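hey m, so remember when u said the C-alpha cells were messed up on ur end? i reran from scratch. heres the input so u can diff it against urs
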Amino acid sequence: MVLLLIVQLALYGASPDPTAGYYLELVEGGFTNPVYATSPHGDKRLFVVEKGGKVKVLEDDVLIGTYIDVKSLLPVSPLSEQGLLGMAFHPDFTSNGKIYLSYTNKDGDLVISELTVDPTADAVNTSSLRKVIEIGQPADNHNGGMILFGLDDMLYLGSGDGGGSGDPGNNGQNKGTLLGAILRIDVNNDSFPIDATRNYGIPSDNPFVGIEGADEIWAYGLRNPWRFSFDPITERLYIGDVGQDQREEITVLDSSQRGANLGWNRLEGTRCYPSGGSCSSIGTVLPQLEYSHGLGSASVTGGFVYRGSEVSGIYGHYFYADFVAGWVRSFEFKGSASSRVSWEGSLPTDLVSSFGLDADGELLIVSFGGNVWRLRGPSDHDEMFFYRDDGLYRYYNITPDGTLSSPLLAGDNYTTGWTSISAVDLDGDGQDEMFFYRDDGLYRYYNIKPDGTLSSPLLAGNEYTTGWDSISAINLD
C-alpha cells in the first residue's frame, strides 16, 4: 500500500481528484418543475413531485404516468414558492397505503394532508384526502414544505418564517408559533379528537411539551428549511436553511439537541442580522457549514447523507447544492464538516431543487428544469480482467447476473495520464504485480522488485490474438 501511494504521487504530482469516475445517469427528463423524488420502503417504483400539483410514477426508470394530481387544491396561479412542495410515504405504506402531501392551498397556507390508497396502484384519486395540519402563512414565500418520517416513525415537517424580508413578524424567535421551525407530529394518533382540522398527535418527548412553546416544535430559529433529512446510521438531522442576502447554512443536530434554536432572525449563519449590527449567539446552535452569496450562489438546497451500496467512495458524505448557482458539493460530518468535495466540474447540474433517494438508497438529484439524475461512480463490484503472456488484455464490468458486457478497455496506443493504479497478485506467484490503467485504455503491467522498484513493463496491451493465460476478478476501479 505504501508503494502504491508513492507511485500514485509520483505519477500525479498531487492527490487524485476525488470526483474522478463519478457521473450523472439520467433517470428521466421532461418533468415540469420537479421539486422532489422519493420511493417508499420496499417498493421499486420512483415518485417525482411536480410543483404544479402532479406526482409522476416510474418503474425501472420508465415513466408510467401521473400517480396523483392535486392541482385543484393549489392557488390558481401559484407564486414562485407555492404549490405542491413535498411528499412522504408512511413507514407502513405497503400495508396501510397512507401517503402525505405538503402543499399551499388556495389561501396560500401550508397544508399537510393524508391520502389512503391501494399501495399497489400506479394511479390514485384524492377522494380519501384528509387534512392533518394547516399552518397560516402571512406572505406567499418561505413556506418550507419538506416532510419526511424520522427513524422514530414520527412525521417531521419544515415551516418557513412566514415570508417577507428579514422575518418582519419575528417568527423565527417566537416559540409560540409554528412558523420558522421544524415540527414533529405523530400521524398515528390524534391529540385533538374534536378538531377536524388537526388530525395528529403530540409526541410526549417533544421539547416544549408542558413548558412555554408550541408542543409541535422540534427545532426553531429557522428562515426557510426548504430541505432537510436524517442520516439513518447516526440519526443526525441535517437542515439546509435558505438565507436572507448574505449567508446560506447547513446545521447538523444530534437527537439530544431537540429544542435547538438555530438563531434566525438574530443571526444569519454565524453573523449578526442585520449585517453590521451587534448580537449574541448565546443559546443558539451555529451552523456546521455556511457559505456566502457571490459568484451566483444564493439559495441552499439541502440533501441527504449517502448510505447506498453502489458507490463506496462517497459513503457517509452529505450532499447539498445551491439552487441559483447550480453546483453540488458534499462533506462528511465528523464533529465538523470535513472531507469537503466540490462536484462543480464533474456533475453538470443546474437549478437543483432537491435531492432524493431511490428504493435502493442511491442518491437522486432533481433539477427544477425537468431532469432527475442518479449519481453513479466507481463501485465495490469486481471487474473481470483477462490477460495473456503475449500482451493482449480485456477488462469487463461484471453485471449483477454474472454475465460480461462488451469490454470496457482493450489496450491500444494511448499516452495520457493514469486514472488508477492497483497492486495485486495477477499471475499467482505469491508476489504482487503493479497494474496501471487509464480510462482511455492504456495499461502497463510490472513485476515489483524486492526493493520496491519496477522493472520494464511485462505487458503493455498490443495487438495479440492467441489464447488466454490467466483470468482474474478484482475490484480495479
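this time it looks ok to me. Residues 2-12 form the longest helix (11 residues). if urs says something different then somethings off w ur setup not the seq
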